[in-house]
Fold:
Amino acid sequence: MITGGVLATSGDALAQSRTDEQYDTRRAASFMAFDICYRALQHFSFPIIVHECQGQFLGPLMSTFPTEYAAAMEQTLASQLGIVPFFYYPVFFALTGFVQGISADAALERAKENFLPLMKRNLIFWIPVQFVQFGFIDEQLQIPFLSVAGLCWTFILSVAAGSAKGYSSSQQQISEQDVPTQGTKGGSLKGSARASSN
Structure:
């Protein structure tokens, strides 16, 4: 798990190096914390997936292929269509948003904007990787294999949705507009007309 966290931080550092902005340590910490949490989930969930998905569902549809391939595809789809949308991304957006200091509303907005594009990238990247993982990598070596693949994925994830700064600054602008200005009749809100016209 620690190795995964270090690799996640490295992937984020590579993504951050693409810009001229100062290195964001909170963003890096958010990726490390998220990756460690997710590796813990994988440690418990992958043995269950492997045990429950033995090719019995896709085997009849893939009868020309060995049963091991059907099992590997079932395990891949269980991970990508079960764990990823219902655990991976909710935890990603909640935890990285929290560590980067944005509100729950801003984290939700960030999730709404980024979930579908990230899910598409996720499936394109991870279905082949996890098929190889479940089909050809010994169970004891699957987490290290995924940690290395995760370095590449973290770079993609960090470039696409790593920074929460845009969401925190937009929330700050909204809250600044809602501050009552001194000397206005009836305590009218500064910028309320602008806010209502957007």
Observations:
- Confidence is low (pLDDT under 50) at residues 170-198.
- Helices lie at 2-16, 25-52, 67-99, 104-136, 142-161, 165-177, 192-197.
